Amino acid sequence: MNAYVGTPTSRVDGRAKVTGAAKYAGEFAADLLLHGFVVAATIPRGRIARLDTSKALKVKGVVDVLTHAHRPPLAEQDEAWKDEVAPEQGSPFRPLYDNSVKFNGQPIALVVAEDWETAKFAATRIRVEYEEEAFATDLESERTKAAKVDQPHKPRGDASAALTRAAVHHEADYVIPSEHHNPMELYATTAVWDGNGKLTVYDKTQGVQNVQKFLCSVFGRKPNEIRVISPYVGGAFGSGLRPQHQVVLATLGALALKRSVRVVLTRHQMYGLGYRPMTIEHVALGANRDGTLEAVMHEAIAVTSRFENFSRNDTGWGEQLYKSPNSRLSHKLVHLDVATPCDMRAPGAASGVCALECAMDELAVALKLDPIELRLRCYSDRDQSEDLPYTSKQLRACYARGAEAFGWSRRAPGPRSMRDGKELVGWGMATGVWEALQMPVAVRIVLTANGHAEVSCAASDIGTGTYTIVAQVAADALGLPIENISVRLADSSLPQAPVEGGSWMAASSAHAVLGAAEEIRQELVRRVKAMPASPLGGVDAPDIILVDGTVTKAGDRSRAVSIADIMRHSKLERIEKEKLNQFEEEKSYARNTHSAVFAEVKVDEQLGVIRVTRVVSAVAAGRILNTKTGRSQVMGSVVWGIGMALHEETLMDHRFGRIMNANIAEYHIPVNADVHDIDVIFVDEPDDRINRLGVKGLGEIGIVGVPAAIANAVYHATGKRIRRFPITLDKLL
Ligand code: MOS
């Protein structure tokens, strides 16, 4: 049954991707295609007093310039602009809606021309006069204006009193800067006008049906008038969860001009979209001398826009990891004149757990305890917020396996006690935790008489390997070689799927495939039993399985009947089944993935240059559907974690409310030379409670804990505790 599931199967879309056959949103062609170029606001707050497009319109090849004063109608109600992942509170941003400017980099016009260069040039001919208003973009100077948001965590006990009483206590602020998404693929949309008022919209997105519903409500269209397709995505990890403004602008252009329009944002313009919000994470831990905790307090203060309350779970993770009779958590927001933040890989956890795990390291130093030992002494077998057991939690095994692979027992505990030539060596570790969510997904399988199956679903593959795992699960469930499976994804006309995010798509899509395959099996069983002198006549239906292109009795291949024979006999060309898989989640368990991350850094004592020379990440995430794509997934996460620790930071000039490093020359991300040895270990974690296959998902867990493990290693190397990320060399000197 498991010829493919659990194996290192190569990506089924790998060849298409490396040969350029895979097409991305900005690559689809259309007759008489027009190109849009975005004109962005250059002030953070105010009104557009005058927007003079006359010179741009005179440029040869320019077809039109769309502005708030000159555009087709857009929905007026906030509700119409709410997408699947919009913050609960607030008024989503509406591009070209009115003359107000809400953030620097906001789109205020779209120049549409026969070619991109002309549109780009004509954009420089647009003159804008603003009525500027007073603005604020600095979280730290506006910190006192932070307002509390509702979070599900109830306080337990009396954390302040327990903290005062505690024998040892550690309290500090950890500052995580805003970080902007920099996927390889630029945000792009090609809106293809079919001549009859219908649009096919190729968009870079993590959810085609989300974008389709959004466009229909924003433009007052019927579902059959807009189809959204996104077969390949060149990286997203949160940036494509919400429909971004380029898809609104391309659609607006196509509807206004009744022609196909492509809009591709420049790298610079991508900084006018969402980002991981800057947070000041205040953590206070109170402990007994034996390393058990008495109090955990965690308050996050995060940036959001003036118009939406974006917040995620930064502070709740201690409830999952560390036993403490008292805890108090809060999340506060400061409204600033900036774009709304958005999800970025492990939103909330990547920042909050970074602070928590640095604080735990500091506590271990204060207690003179090994950092793993401290974590084991307060290890929680239950999720304390709801007092629930876990469906599975092999975090202890992560610590043990990771420590062994890393060689942790050879660590000299004191800071500045390990050296390699003129470099200081530091070893640090941290814990990671994420959720194991599942969402309703529907899958359609069409089985044809030649023993080929097409499996389709509206889910996206943002590069994480959905095509491959869907093919693996289908091949096993249908008893076919994987070469006989073709997978179609990310077309809004296909069966229902949510946005691909939150690490829920592997478990959700795999079980939807199982559901549809079971319907196929039942149909084949009915058909085979109806054949005259059927070798499976007397066999109970549940004992009949699909294997090697045949239908047979489990354990008795002599009774096998080929799918081709059954279909020929039934005079069928194809069997088509579609099934929606709903998850009935028992409320009596917590569902999480865990990891233990170990990092080695080498720091040049004179120059402060930091190299992350080794990372071992031991991950417990249930059954791993594909050990090859799964390993890549975690390695990518670790690389991003290196970026979070040492490189990534959106720098704003608060005098102008403008991002200063809106390009990948000055917004630093890890490059090849920054990435050394990364070892990924998947810890065995059987879980028959979470779902049939025991799958939990790997999309986000790999980044959580990585920045803290590196920061802790930097402390171990240098004796310097840097609490303001990223840890750049100037902070060490
Ligand atoms: Mo993920 S941040 O849900 O793409």
TrEMBL record:
Signal peptide: none annotated. One of its GO terms (molecular function) is oxidoreductase activity. SMART domains: Ald_Xan_dh_C. Residues 19-134 form the Aldehyde oxidase/xanthine dehydrogenase a/b hammerhead domain. Pfam families: Ald_Xan_dh_C, MoCoBD_1, MoCoBD_2. It comes from the Bacteria. Gene3D superfamilies: Aldehyde oxidase/xanthine dehydrogenase, a/b hammerhead, Aldehyde oxidase/xanthine dehydrogenase, molybdopterin binding domain. SUPFAM superfamilies: CO dehydrogenase molybdoprotein N-domain-like (SSF54665), Molybdenum cofactor-binding domain (SSF56003). This is Xanthine dehydrogenase YagR molybdenum-binding subunit. It comes from Bradyrhizobium huanghuaihaiense.
